């Protein structure tokens, strides 16, 4: 009998996305084929404390199912690089760029990838400006106010007035010292998954998020029992191909590896596509659209996990 591969599944951490990470990690732990893998959960607490010191003699590969700062922004990836342990997903640079909405958009714009109009500013600029309107006057209502380095819709506000803008910025500053404000557009929300290495990544069929109200907030994503996506999305063939092509360009723009999910806004009236963001460690909960998009593309969940682990070994040369 072939010896099973020891997989350390990292979860938790000090991010506000701690609970989402635990849900994702449990789904991975439940689905890893036991004839191939020997999984062990490594739960990092909310203070960032590890229950065990990872070493090559304890784990053959690490699956960091962590979302948000600390786990998805290059910090954990850098630690694993120093340990010399293969790990699933993007490396340090791609993780850092993909976590920061400002740096991400700079990478997209450098590659002529369309994004929505936006502005950004630091907490210092917000506190010291005499007229807050000056910081956002290039945009129109409604606007979306977001922490630059947070995910899972945490800290996001849709605002339609200066009073709401000020409250939204204060909420965003509770999570990050940098804030991005995006122009709101009336559009469908389309997602597309990436799977593969630097040279020949593949893309999934696009899916469409079902948005209750004005936007898909944390409660709708993770707490509501309602369906959150239609997969595959019903799109004109040209639009579906554009989504797939832009997804690959975005993945390459940040130097992605392993996996990512690209999120788009599609204006049906104009036919325009805007790349909203790319997530280097998308959710892996049973409701999450990344795995469901790949299942609809012919890659069942256990096979998806196996391919991701194989990619981790391929990058390390193991």
Shape: globular
The beta-strand count equals 13
- CATH topology term of the largest domain: D-amino Acid Aminotransferase, Chain A, domain 1
Helicity level, as a percent range? 25-40%
Q: Assign the structural class, choosing from mainly alpha, mainly beta, alpha/beta, alpha+beta, or little secondary structure.
A: alpha+beta
Average the pLDDT over all residues and give the rounded result: 92
Q: What's the CATH H-level homologous superfamily of the largest domain? A: ATP-grasp fold, B domain
The percentage of residues in β strands lies in 15-25%
Secondary-structure element order, as H and E?
EHEEHHHEHHEEHEEEEHEHEEHH
What kind of sheet is the major sheet? 6 strands, antiparallel
Function: Cell wall formation.
Pathway: Cell wall biogenesis; peptidoglycan biosynthesis
Keywords: ATP-binding, Cell shape, Cell wall biogenesis/degradation, Cytoplasm, Ligase, Magnesium, Manganese, Metal-binding, Nucleotide-binding, Peptidoglycan synthesis
Cofactor: Mn(2+); Mg(2+)
């Amino acid at each position: 009998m072939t010896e099973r591969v020891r997989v350390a599944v990292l979860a938790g951490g000090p991010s506000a996305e701690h609970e989402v990470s635990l849900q994702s990690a449990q789904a991975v732990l439940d689905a890893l084929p036991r004839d191939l893998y020997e999984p062990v959960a490594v739960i990092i607490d909310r203070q960032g404390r590890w229950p065990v010191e990872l070493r090559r003699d304890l784990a053959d590969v690490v699956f960091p199912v962590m979302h948000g700062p600390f786990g998805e922004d290059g910090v954990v990836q850098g630690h694993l690089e120093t340990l010399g342990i293969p790990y699933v997903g993007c490396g340090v640079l791609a993780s850092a760029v993909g976590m920061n909405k400002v740096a991400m958009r700079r990478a997209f714009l450098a590659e002529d990838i369309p994004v929505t109009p936006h502005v950004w500013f630091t907490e210092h600029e917000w506190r010291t400006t005499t007229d807050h309107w000056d910081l956002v006057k290039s945009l129109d209502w409604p606007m979306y106010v977001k922490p630059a380095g947070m995910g899972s819709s945490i800290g996001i506000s849709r605002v339609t007035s200066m009073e709401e803008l000020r409250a939204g910025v204060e909420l965003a500053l509770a999570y990050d010292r940098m804030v991005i404000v995006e122009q709101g557009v009336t559009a469908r929300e389309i997602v597309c998954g990436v799977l593969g290495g630097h040279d020949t990544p593949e893309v999934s069929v696009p899916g469409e998020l079902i948005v209750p109200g004005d936007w898909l907030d944390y409660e709708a994503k993770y707490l509501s029992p309602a369906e959150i996506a239609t997969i595959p999305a019903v799109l004109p063939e040209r639009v579906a191909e554009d989504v797939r092509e832009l997804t690959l360009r975005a993945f390459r723009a940040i130097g992605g590896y392993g996996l990512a999910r690209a999120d788009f806004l599609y204006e049906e009236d104009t036919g325009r596509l805007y790349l909203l963001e790319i997530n280097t460690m998308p959710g892996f909960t049973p409701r999450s659209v990344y795995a469901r998009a790949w299942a609809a593309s012919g890659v069942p969940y256990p096979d998806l996990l196996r391919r991701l682990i194989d990619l981790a070994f391929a990058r390390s040369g193991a």
